[in-house]
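Revision sheet: structure tokens.
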Amino acid sequence: MTVLKTLSVTNHNKSFKYSILIGDDFIELLEKNFSKTLKEKKIYVMYDEFFYKLKLNKNLIDNFKKLSTKLSSEFFFFKTKSKDKFKNFENLSNLLNYILSHKINRDSIIISIGGGVTGDLVGFASSIVLRGVKCIHIPTTLLSQVDSSVGGKTGINTKHGKNLVGAFHQPEGVLIDINFLKTLPERELFAGFAEVIKYSFIYDKKFFKYLENNTESIKKLKSPYIENTIFKSCQIKAKIVSIDEKEQGIRAILNFGHTFAHAFENLINYDNKKLIHGEAVAIGMVCAFKLSVYLNLCSKKEAERCIGLISKFNLPTKLKDIKKIKLVSKKLLDKFYLDKKVKNGKITFILSNGIGSALIKNDLKEKTLKIFLNELINE
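Predicted:
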């Protein structure tokens, strides 16, 4: 087992600090780096159904039993549902009831093993049970490895919108095992690249060129391209979070494409058969680029180059790629107003002013937006 890359995440006043470890054996990463944290504790391991379907759970439980003996710790296991539509109050309640019925205490540790849904759900549960206990994330999808496991955002969806109930709760650590990527269905893997590409669009032109020049090697998970890609993605997010943990300023640029994406997901009731989160983000970023061009913030040439990179990573780029959805500008507009970034009744969009640079736009007139949406839908 090798720790391939290590990244430290903290903020300016050191109110939190943890490591992101990228390697190829998460059990060994956990044992070698968190033995002191886990020793003589009650540990609640929450893994998702995808992990279960791969039949990795038996090895997982066997390995944790061995670890339990070494650390004199007690382990409990709970299977969660991995689809976005299950990231809700009901499943949060099920999770909380399980850990409370097994007598969790304040020095217990909760470990999430799964994709973004599992990490968000488990992270939120750990932030509120007993008013907060420690958690460790072991993300198993590309999207969760480069995005949702880093930065401390947790939450659940409601009928009103995505991630509208949640908390900021930084983990004790994030363990990224690149071998999990080899187990992913192709659609799930490529969806994760949407968040990877996003970082280059909003923050780093050199990273954009790296992705553009090495697309095929990255898609095939070749070393060292995939490790470099994951590390750089996490590094960009960690840097932004270190400046603005609670999203009062620059952290908002991480939502590039997400105002559109969350509206699309809400309109299809979070049905993963029609659209998964990374695909929604991909189409959302295309819409954000088109709005940027419409407002003369970004050149058409650069926008088309960026949309071309999205396409190269086998991601959808057109509204018609969303299955069984009839888009109406008024419905989209209504969903925009449910977004967390709405302030003083104004919708906030993260837009582009060129490759590697983003801006926060919250002074867009509704009339202008309606005209743009009508043109977008009727393309």
